[in-house]
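Purpose: get a first structural picture of the assembly so the mutagenesis plan has something to point at.
Setup: six entries, given in the order below. No constraints added.
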Amino acid sequence: MPTIRVEMFEGRTDEQKKDFVKAITEATVQTLGSSPEAVDVLLFEIKRSDWATGGVLWSDRK
Amino acid sequence: MPTIRVEMFEGRTDEQKKDFVKAITEATVQTLGSSPEAVDVLLFEIKRSDWATGGVLWSDRK
Amino acid sequence: MPTIRVEMFEGRTDEQKKDFVKAITEATVQTLGSSPEAVDVLLFEIKRSDWATGGVLWSDRK
Amino acid sequence: MPTIRVEMFEGRTDEQKKDFVKAITEATVQTLGSSPEAVDVLLFEIKRSDWATGGVLWSDRK
Amino acid sequence: MPTIRVEMFEGRTDEQKKDFVKAITEATVQTLGSSPEAVDVLLFEIKRSDWATGGVLWSDRK
Amino acid sequence: MPTIRVEMFEGRTDEQKKDFVKAITEATVQTLGSSPEAVDVLLFEIKRSDWATGGVLWSDRK
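Result (structure tokens, whole complex):
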């Protein structure tokens, strides 16, 4: 703990994911004082056909 | 906000998903007074082999 | 199933919640063909001091 | 209700999942007094490239 | 990991919660082979006025 | 999107929360290239009597 869950569109590279979990963990350690090993980050990649804003799926926008 | 997460069995058509997110967003706008663009809906399709009721996976029922 | 989780700011009236869960359930029944009793809706009221957009808590905005 | 969500690494066998949901449901029935049919268990299998501890994805550990 | 989230009606005693997390953790260890310290269980107590089934809040049922 | 949910023990100060959501949002913007306004962070403060590790609630540890 803390446990951090992130929902984002699919399509990030492995490198982006690696940098992201590192950066978000450091941000947590520095501002909350958690020990790094206590921070879990789980990534959920959501398809644009499974996320709607304003009643319209992102796969149907524009 | 609001942010709405829906877990349902996999197997809906694109048309059903499109109608569902539209209907659920309109229901939110009308009853909560949210602006449509503030409503996010995320769909999570769950396999019957990953959902159990009464201790039995749905893939094993009947 | 489906199970619907809604995160929204706190402060809705009992009447709004009652209307909201009814409307959202009807929208689900009509577009997904679920039986009403199979639809669960869970409401999570979030304080403005626990929700940030753009890095700023809503309790600190304007 | 109760509704139980489990996030775990991918790679369990069908047999393990079947035993797990059965055991966890029985544990719930015995300690909380729920009726078995009221207990839902949802499994989310997470890839090691989507779960980080200490800022490092499990796919990159060791 | 695994991380187990449980949503249930509020009103369990401390003793029930204690027994429940112990039983559910043992069930996990025995069927998935996890080490006990790797199992996290988080309890979310939901008010009957925040959970609806069939479009009706549980606080309004019966 | 991304939407970031954080479960942590209760007891952080307003200042810590403010710094945390700012830092985590900046980390997201820098590594994923999201626009700041697209990043939502939701904080869930969990009581030690609602979080167990190894089958023991944190309120009962030590």
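Chain F has one domain: 3-60.
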